[in-house]
Amino acid sequence: MTYPKQDTAPGTGPTMNGETHMSEGTAPAAGEAASVADEAARERLLYLRGSIDNLDAALVHLLAERFKCTQQVGELKARHSLPPADPAREAAQIERLRRLAEDAKLDPAFAEKFLNFIIGEVVRHHRAIADRTHEEATAEAAGPAAG
Amino acid sequence: MTYPKQDTAPGTGPTMNGETHMSEGTAPAAGEAASVADEAARERLLYLRGSIDNLDAALVHLLAERFKCTQQVGELKARHSLPPADPAREAAQIERLRRLAEDAKLDPAFAEKFLNFIIGEVVRHHRAIADRTHEEATAEAAGPAAG
Known about the structure:
Oligomer: homodimer
Radius of gyration of chain A: 25 Å
Largest interface: A-B, 73 and 71 residues
Number of strands of chain A: 0
């Protein structure tokens, strides 16, 4: 699956200090010019990886917060004997995220895959919570000695 | 791609309008108290889902930004004939994200699975870019008529 991606002006990436040195449009006549281009490419790669690392840190922290919410949902559902999964809610979430992804120029199919990946994990958590809650309820019903 | 869907306990799903009518865990005597508790639970569920939706919107936008970065990395790698995947970089990313996840009280194993999920998508994109770049280079080498 390919998605129409953002086009960058070819060979014009800024280096770490903000200068642009790339010269892709020129003929690779000299080996020296090629090695300068390689050095600039390496700097540009490090620069982009720095941004990716920053975004990943933000993603991990948001995911941690999201699981705090779904953990509470799981406990709520277990206490009220609600089913761990909710297909109608999931369908609405997928529809919404696909729309948001389109606006953000993210492949909507990927956004859907991403949400399914997260939901799969959440439902596993909810099942575990439901099992624990059921065990605790059973132990409680067995009498005070068990509690 | 279809994702293994959550199976709901038969006949216990919430209705489309979000109401829940289950009373499995409650003693039949206290029907009214149970319905007040159910109402409070339903409100709490909607509250938590609001937070989850906000976090998901943030996640989608960060992912869009991340793919803009990796798109540029992909083009850089294709121009300089670097391999799409980089196992040493990936190992360092996983190690770092696991540490960040631990600090944020997110399951490090999940953080690793998440990164692998994203990287899998990115590498697919990079291969597509590399293929396109190779095709373009071949077309260019064929003469100005192709360009």
